[in-house]
């Protein structure tokens, strides 16, 4: 079980400071939640994760179900013991990934969407994606590893998440594409709401279960979903949805949704967390949020700094003997690593810089949110 205590509310915005207690530790909120998709923060050991100010992580039900299978994780003592990482954990429901295999693949959608992927097309009722079959009870799909047929629905998702053993688990939902029309989104929402009740009934563990609010880009559906899901006895609430690069809709969507949710329970925003998003989503009342940005960009040689992003694979850094960021307290910046050396390693296709930049980026993101918490404490946010 978890407990959530709000310690301060902003007078300027909906931002709040909170303490989220879980069986594996305490999280100061608002908090950034790094992604450990396949029971690993890519490129890092668990000890290295511990040194990045990371408070809580999110792992992936869909991927862990396919490989190695939840039985292996359970036999290993649950996600924390399996990973040798004693930190609070969340698992997502697998809904996002399984649906990404569908319309997401067909239309080139993703959480991180480029301008050129935008298309003037829409998804309508009755339409089925090419690679999977959506039914009333869940989704039939083929594993990307060996092509075997698999089924994931609310009951299956909860059973898998119970075996994985995270502190916080998520209800199974359909994450609709930003190009789905109103009618498709409405029908999908009715299914997500039905599945929410199935998830509540299916859970037998003492893990915390968060309901998920959907409704796409439509105000009426967002409000309806927040009221419906907010009225069910969940321990917290996650807000889902894909917005592509439409940040304006994301802020509006939070303004429609959050006032409808029970104030005393924690709220998680799924898959959003560019640095520039953070003050905005926190001001709307989001307590935790996960995003692959710091780890994903690190593996492409991009470091985040107090003066913007650095593409460290560029030749111009080869003679730059400064650390990634002079103002950063991470072990990479403080430990004597130079931009010059990291650039050389990246250009030589070595593995080490991916680890070093990931450590820096995670530390940088967590420190950034720490400052936003201080800003709330000081009445500035
Ligand atoms: Zn650093």
Notes on the structure:
- By secondary structure, this protein is of the alpha/beta class.
- The chain has two domains: 3-291, Queuine tRNA-ribosyltransferase-like (TIM Barrel, Alpha-Beta Barrel), CATH 3.20.20; 307-362, no CATH class.
- The protein is built from 14 helices and 17 strands.
- It has helices spanning 46-50, 61-66, 70-75, 79-83, 95-107, 154-164, 182-202, 219-230, 247-257, 278-283, 293-298, 331-334, 339-347, 352-377; strands at residues 3-9, 16-22, 25-29, 31-33, 35-36, 57-60, 89-92, 132-134, 139-142, 149-152, 168-170, 208-213, 236-239, 267-269, 288-290, 302-305, 308-311.
- The protein has a nine-stranded parallel β-sheet. The protein has a three-stranded antiparallel β-sheet with strand order 1-2-3. Strands 8-9-10 form a three-stranded antiparallel β-sheet.
- β12, α8 and β13 (236-239) form a beta-alpha-beta unit.
- The chain starts with a strand and ends with a helix.
- The relative contact order is 0.14.
- Residues 109-118 have low confidence and may be disordered.
- Bound molecules: zinc ion.
- Residues 324-325, 328, 330, 332-333, 360, 363-364 line the site of zinc ion.
- The site of zinc ion (ZN) has 9 residues, from α12 and α14.
Q: What is the total number of structural domains? A: 2
Please, what is the average pLDDT?
92
Number of helices: 14
Helix content: 25-40%
Termini separation comes to: 30 Å
Largest sheet entry: 9 strands, parallel
What structural category characterises the helix and strand content?
A: alpha/beta
Strand content: 15-25%
What is the tally of beta strands?
17
Bound compounds: zinc ion
Q: Specify the CATH class of the largest domain.
A: Alpha Beta
Shape: globular
Q: Provide the CATH architecture of the largest domain.
A: Alpha-Beta Barrel
CATH topology of the largest domain: TIM Barrel
Q: Name the CATH superfamily assignment of the largest domain.
A: Queuine tRNA-ribosyltransferase-like
Strand order of the largest sheet: 4-15-14-13-12-11-7-6-5
Identify low-pLDDT runs. 109-118
Output the radius of gyration: 20 Å
